[in-house]
Amino acid sequence: MAGKKDKSDLSRLPKVDIVLQEKVLDVWKGSTLATAAVREVLEMVRKDAAAHLPTMVDPAEVASRAANLLQDRFAPQLRRVINGTGIIIHTNLGRSPLSEAAIQAVEQAARSYSTLEYDLDKGRRGSRHFLVREMLLALTGAEDALVANNNASALLLALTALSKRKQVIVSRGELVEIGGSFRIPDICRLSGAKMVEVGTTNRTRIADYRKEVSDKTGLLLRVHPSNFRVVGFTEGVTMPELVKLGEESGVPVVNDLGSGALVDVSKLSGLPREPLVSEAVAEGASVVTFSGDKLLGGPQAGIAVGRKEVIEKMRRHPLMRVVRPDKLSFAALDATLRAYLRPASLADELPVWTMLHARPETLDEWARPLVSKLEKKATKTGLTIGLGDSQATSGGGSLPDETLPSLAIRFEGPARALNSLQKRLRLGEPSVIGYLKDGTFFLDIRTMIIEDRDEICDALTRALLKT
Ligand SMILES: *Cc1c(COP(=O)(O)O)cnc(C)c1O
């Protein structure tokens, strides 16, 4: 509402108390946030008036602006996203979507009390650390297992419990950074272990480790190069060699697998093999660590399996209390691991495996009706829509450089229209995220097939209408 631009406008500004009585602010009653928001809006109005801009003096209008401000400011920040990037385990988008069974387990654990730390047989306190242990032993062949908050914390726990004030020997080829701020040297320092680097970036031999092993050595560390590949003149040490050295010198060997896999990826998809946890255990490592939300397809978690005496030492360490997962994670992890007990139906149960497994024909069948439905709407906005080849990846620091042939919905047209479409999709509800490449906008179908097609169609329709 435009008022007159003279000083009297300021005197006509509504009082805070009056504005607070407006109906739109009822939902915020009892919170000091509403008062603060109204003051904030009035302050803006005052500034407008001082700048001789149209000034609001109607209490309803001020209240409605304050309500909008509050709604925007406290809108949920964790929004749903439809992933059209073709990156299956997309760390920025929350890694693995959970299975239906895991979702139900989370819901039940959230809704009621549970046996998180209660032994029903004995009628007394139990421990959360044994909740999924039996399944982990069956699935990996290890003697013992524990679950931490994530793989980084499982590794930190291993380093702290086994090597604090001692040396950790690690190859210079494995001093990796796993995105964000997770760097092997940092985590070593944090644990209080002293890192001893051996070998070179591209070549490390067992003799390099042997030279450094002494009574000051706490453990030998192997880190799976999960998000990069060194090619050319390379030489590495095999796990059996490292384990043999560890045994000879009485030093545990920790193998950080990163993603790790409980079943052979190559059998369920066109991708090459990712190291199996069971193989890493069979090679004799004292501890093998891996993530719960990478190829495993479950919730954020870090799993450590291995030798009984070593895992027990980790479990008893005070840091275990700091890095323990909560009940919701345990519920989801339990249901996820359960799916691996029946590997034949894995691709039907776990979204990550559904996406890895999907055949090009399936993707085509899924997408074709969607594209036909949208064709006219796209043309109206000056864009063409079609189906075309795309390359999906497993992501999540597993199988770098390896792509899965995939299919994508492609939008072509003037750059401005494409940019606008991309933005509208991104800001829509749900948000739809794709990628631009060589002047074409792609929505990879492999990472979208687990979602409801009609809902995606609606989201695309809305975005096209506004483009
Ligand atoms: C991903 C990864 C980690 C970190 O795992 P989070 O579960 O994200 O904490 C550690 N090591 C390797 C080799 C990884 O690939």
Which key features would you list for this structure?
3 domains; binds pyridoxal-5'-phosphate; alpha/beta; five-stranded mixed sheet; Aspartate Aminotransferase, domain 1
Task: Tell me what the structure shows.
With 467 residues, the chain is of the alpha/beta class. Helix content is 42%, strand content 17%. The chain is built from 20 helices and 16 strands. The chain has a seven-stranded mixed beta sheet, with helices on both faces. A five-stranded mixed beta sheet has the order 2-12-13-16-15. Mean pLDDT is 92; it is low at 1-7. Residues 150-152, 178, 182, 223-224, 226, 256, 258-259, 291, 302, 397 line the site of pyridoxal-5'-phosphate.
Low-confidence stretches: 1-7
CATH A-level architecture of the largest domain: 3-Layer(aba) Sandwich
Give me the side-by-side strand order of the main sheet. 5-11-10-9-8-6-7
User: What's the CATH topology name of the largest domain?
Assistant: Aspartate Aminotransferase, domain 2
Bound ligands, named by name, code or SMILES: pyridoxal-5'-phosphate
User: What is the structural class?
Assistant: alpha/beta
What gyration radius follows from the Cα positions, in whole Å?
Answer: 28 Å
Beta-strand fraction estimate:
15-25%
User: Please, what is the average pLDDT?
Assistant: 92
The CATH superfamily of the largest domain is identified as Type I PLP-dependent aspartate aminotransferase-like (Major domain)
The level 1 CATH classification of the largest domain is Alpha Beta
Q: Give the biggest sheet.
A: 7 strands, mixed
The DSSP helix count reads: 20
In total, how many beta strands?
Answer: 16
What characteristic shape results from the CA principal axes? globular
